[in-house]
Amino acid sequence: MTDTIATFRKTDAEWKEQLTPEQYRITRQHGTERAFTGPYWDSFETGLYRCVCCNSPLFRSDTKFDAGCGWPSYFEPVAPDAVTEHRDTTYGMVRTEIRCGTCDAHLGHVFPDGPPPTGQRYCINGHSLAFEPGR
């Protein structure tokens, strides 16, 4: 655990007070929203996507693309340390989970089927994001 993550360590009660029930379920309990139901999956406004838990910058709108999967998708984070990768073997699959590099919030998963220049598809739960327009 990094010092930054330790700084954002909160009790479940504190997270529940700060977040909506859906945001809490997704970010703190590693949940997933249903495809085509969460915020931002079909939004292409110019701006910056931040972590809903700690407000850290995660993705820029110019890296967002329509993957057709029903979740906001990006080909790269704002910085290499903005997100961390973790092996996820739930549901009988092997996937790479993505968490916020600052507060360890569950964001979604990354897959190697994205567009150039990275070939990556960061498939992110919209409820784990806060959008700052115009950045």
- The topology string of helices and strands comes to HHHEEEEEEEEE
How many helical elements? 3
CATH superfamily: Peptide methionine sulfoxide reductase
Low-confidence stretches: none
Query: C-alpha Rg, in Å?
Result: 14 Å
What summary fits the major beta sheet?
6 strands, antiparallel
What is the CATH first-level class name?
Mainly Beta
Strand order of the biggest β-sheet: 3-4-8-7-6-5
Overall mean pLDDT stands at: 93
Name the quaternary structure. Answer: single chain
* Beta-strand content bin: 25-35%
CATH topology title:
Metal Binding Protein, Guanine Nucleotide Exchange Factor, Chain A
Task: Let me know the number of strands.
Answer: 9
> How many structural domains are formed by the residues?
1
Global morphology: globular
Helix vs. strand class: alpha+beta
At a glance:
The chain is an alpha+beta fold and 135 residues long.
What does this protein structure show overall?
This protein has a 6-stranded antiparallel sheet with strand order 3-4-8-7-6-5. It has a 3-stranded antiparallel sheet with strand order 2-1-9, with no helix packed on it. With 135 residues, the chain is an alpha+beta fold. It has helices spanning 3-7, 12-18, 21-29, and strands spanning 47-51, 57-60, 64-65, 73-74, 83-88, 95-100, 106-111, 121-124, 129-133. The radius of gyration is 14 Å and the shape is globular. It has 3 helices and 9 strands; from the N terminus they run αααβββββββββ. Helices cover 16% and strands 30% of the residues. The chain has a single domain (3-133), classed as Metal Binding Protein, Guanine Nucleotide Exchange Factor, Chain A (Beta Complex), CATH 2.170.150. Strand 5 and strand 6 form a beta hairpin.
